[in-house]
Amino acid sequence: MNYLFINCSKNKNGVTSELGKTVLKGMKSDKLHLADYSIKQIDQEHDKRTDQFKEVFAQFKEADVILIGTPVYWSSMTGYLKTFIDRFTDVIDENVEGKEVYLIVQGTAPEDAIPFIEHVIKHVCHRFNMKYKGFVQNKEAAKRLNKIL
Ligand SMILES: Cc1cc2nc3c(=O)[nH]c(=O)nc-3n(C[C@H](O)[C@H](O)[C@H](O)COP(=O)(O)O)c2cc1C
Asked: For 34, which DSSP code?
């Protein structure tokens, strides 16, 4: 199984990143920080040389299990993640069927945002026939998921 952690925080060594490490501890896995990539807003990717969506999507396609981690920004997912999801419109006919998707959502008071963020991820999984497997909000849940994986 190929495991991929996609950190959608602006911080490469923040809480989201730490939870991702905990979930995947002891496992061979890949990690990418969306903050390292220049992914343009949908329909603003005029300069194909600098837009890196396809590069990130190629790594997504390689994985069997994908762990998406986002902090809450203004009661929602981060813009990094939303832009990435919007750009899936460009690859609507790609086959990513059967991939397992887990979610990390955390913040200072994230409860209002979690159902919405989970709803969006479920929607994307449903559209692309991927399997949404659940979410982690804190260290304890991350340790539990590590044992399951
Ligand atoms: C722009 C911005 C907006 C934020 N808005 C919220 C919010 O609405 N609700 C919340 O619970 N936390 C909010 N936070 C706090 C972060 O979610 C929190 O500090 C989180 O642990 C950061 O994760 P990180 O260390 O992986 O970057 C916000 C942080 C930033 C930078």
From this structure: G
